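Table 4 source record.
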Amino acid sequence: MFRVQTLNEISAVGLVRFDRVRFLVGPDVSDPDAIMLRSFKMHDMVLPDTLKAVGRAGAGVNNIPVAALSARGIPVFNAPGANANAVKELVVAGLLIAARNLRGAWEFAERLEGTDAEISKAVEAGKKAYAGFELPGRTLGVVGLGAIGRMVANIGLLLGMKVVGFDPELTVEGAWQLSAEVRKAGSIEELLKQVDFVSFHVPLIDATRHMINATRLQLMKPTATILNFARDGIVDDGAVVAALDAGRLHAYLCDFPSNRLKGHPKVLALPHLGASTKEAEDNCAIMVADELSDFLERGNVRNSVNFPEVVVPREGACRLLVANANVPNMVGQISTAVAQAGLNIHNLVNKSHGDLAYTLVDLDSMLPDTVYEQIASIAGVMSVRRITA
């Protein structure tokens, strides 16, 4: 029986995807084969020796020690696109709030006092201060054209906006899902010079930290709005506040409140609502539960941030799974050990992801312990597992 420990409350719709005969799942599970989590910070956690996989019921993995897990040959799974619609809808709300000055208008209306007649008179006198503008014809910039960014770009077009995108890592498959009307920028600087709104949909890594900073803010229109519903740290809050105070930026909307942002009249900071819908939580849990089940039961890898994609129907009496350093002659050493034991390889797949490689071998007969241990002792092998049931 496989043991799955949950470190956060996970949608029950996802948890029922685990076969109750083959899986024990819950927060109190010890010696887990897999860990499933949402926002729990694993960086200071002692990783169990039994651990074979980690699944994040969401897209970002900043709360997971991916490098340490990779060094042990442990895949980290996530749920790209499962929460995309929820974030897209929040971005649309942000566009409308900024364009129609809804925050200020709402606060103005809440402060009104007097009789209904007096309030009505004050409304007519004060509403001009909150006049906004419409979205059609405005330019929306989208930085990061993954599952969420593509949905934001496409709905921008449906709202009548001009859309320009920037993503140097855009895949061919991703491009197929993006409207041909989305113009491509050659750099983030090129994009920022054009936009009335810019929305960020990138992970927080060294290359994206403070992607919006004082220098790049100088390139933007003073009437522009920044939306960050991706990750805290992508935008330099101090630089943005300075630009807002100087009248060089219209508004900033984000999902990451702080003392610096709180109470600023041109800032709307929400309490990390991007993926906080029942539908998104259900979708993420379902996707990650299926990924963990497929890996533990069959060794297949789908949607891993540190392992290559390997999905192969099982053929043979025994399946051998090896995570190893991506260096020459690893496959040769593995296949030699198998051949010297007189075993026939029915199928072999080897793929790499950066410095890590994953080798899947289907054998026509069982793998003896001695050969298993020999393969495990090969220099550069990080983890070995065999599936026989």
